Amino acid sequence: MHKYKDIKDFFKKNAPHLKPTEELIKRMKTFREGWITKDISYNEFLTSPYTGVYEIKFSLLDDEKLMVEVFELYDWKELQEEVYKVPGIERYFKVASNIVYLTLVYTAHLYITAKNINKEKRREGVREACLILQLKMFASTYNHFFKHLTDEATAITVYKMLSYKFLIKQYKSWLDVFEYRVKTCLGETKDEDGKVSPNYYRLIRFTTKDAVDLLANIQTKLRRQLVEIYAVHKKVVDNKLQIKQEKSTFVGGEENLEQIRNLTESLEKYTEFIKQISNNSNNFINPVIVDIVVNLFNKLEEHNLVKFLKCMTDDNFIKPEERYKILEDILVASYKYLQRKGINFRDKTKVPTAVIQLREYWRGSKVSDPLVVNTKKKLREYAKACLRKKTEWMLVTLSLGFVIYVFLLSLEIDKKE
């Protein structure tokens, strides 16, 4: 006589508090965003198509934080032993028996079958659980193959040699690959064989075999891609096939010079514009952009941002030359970063992408660019003096909000031309 009937029975008895709620979605999202932004290399990896360049890890501390702070499973290490008592969960299948992975797919099952929340929230719950699952799974496999990081020139060569059978060639970034897998689990797109993925039905039924097969399927597909990419990587290294990369960000003769020249001209135009309107709060404060920025940051309150914008236009609060220096430094650092990422922010369709990229770049705790480090430090000091509050997260968020606001406001000059 087994202690548990199946994997659902196991979770119902050991985690009865797990429910498909909006609050749990928020906790999963906070965890995922925190993992992505704890190091700039994590975001660089997710938004790039390259493999082996960036160090990414999903540590035991990440497991602990996920299981305790998100799922409130304080005895999760004991549950790892307990789950082996479920018929069909075999200890020697390391991935399919892992309590963290099983908790994530069980959570996805709760959301996809939920009756108490709307379709949008059901989808969001499945997405968060499946993204975290893949981040953990990919990081583990990735570090097995790429114990030693490679240079970007090698990674670019490897990428160029991959055929379009690789999802990373079709979707252009690892985050987009993970999003594709989310859609297959939701039944929103066809799998590689042109049919609705079996994972969609497995997630709904969620028998023990379904849970095991679902995890094995995702792991196999991630691992297969990495195995084949590593084989190409080894070929490139062994045969010294690296494409020569110049030190400048853009590569390509006259085109390179033209891009650099365009960037320089853009910087002069945008920085002069932002300086001119920064002397008057009525010109500097744009309600539409304020609203956009507030919605980009959790807990950034509109009245605090507006107050800070007013302070930063007041000559009695900040000397004009100091204000101009900060504004210019924000734009120089931001434009250089977007240039490095190959994002043409003058194409209005690319602005949302540019904004998200800049938010994560400026938020990164390990950014080494002195211009970014010093500007963030100065902005926190001014924010503290303006609001007269010492809460660190508030000052940091307000400073980051100001950076994104200045970037978006600088683009307003294009509407005047």
Defining traits:
single chain, 417 residues, mainly alpha, 2 domains, 21 helices, 67% helix, 0% strand
Describe the protein's architecture and organization.
The chain is an all-alpha fold and 417 residues long. It has two domains: 7-238, no CATH class; 253-416, no CATH class. Helices cover 67% and strands 0% of the residues. Helix 7 (119-145) packs across helix 10 (174-185), helix 15 packs across helix 20 (392-410) and helix 17 (320-341) crosses helix 20 (392-410). It is globular and about 75 Å long. The N and C termini lie far apart (78 Å). The model is unreliable at 243-265 (pLDDT under 50).
List the helices and strands and how they pair.
Layout: H1 7-14, H2 22-37, H3 40-46, H4 60-70, H5 76-82, H6 99-112, H7 119-145, H8 152-161, H9 167-171, H10 174-185, H11 198-205, H12 208-238, H13 253-277, H14 281-284, H15 287-294, H16 302-311, H17 320-341, H18 351-363, H19 370-387, H20 392-410, H21 413-416
Helix pairs in contact: 2-4, 2-7, 6-7, 6-12, 7-10, 7-12, 8-12, 11-12, 13-17, 15-20, 16-19, 17-19, 17-20, 18-20, 19-20
* Structural Rg: 24 Å
Beta-strand level of the residues, as a percent range? under 5%
Unreliable stretches covering 5 or more consecutive residues: 243-265
- Tell me roughly what share of residues is in helical segments: 55-70%
Question: Secondary-structure element order, as H and E?
Answer: HHHHHHHHHHHHHHHHHHHHH
* Count of structural domains: 2
Overall pLDDT score: 86
Q: Could you describe the largest sheet, including whether it forms a barrel?
A: none
DSSP, total strands: 0
The best one-word shape is globular
- Structural class, by secondary structure, is mainly alpha
Q: Specify the number of helices.
A: 21
Q: What is the CA-CA span between the terminal residues?
A: 78 Å
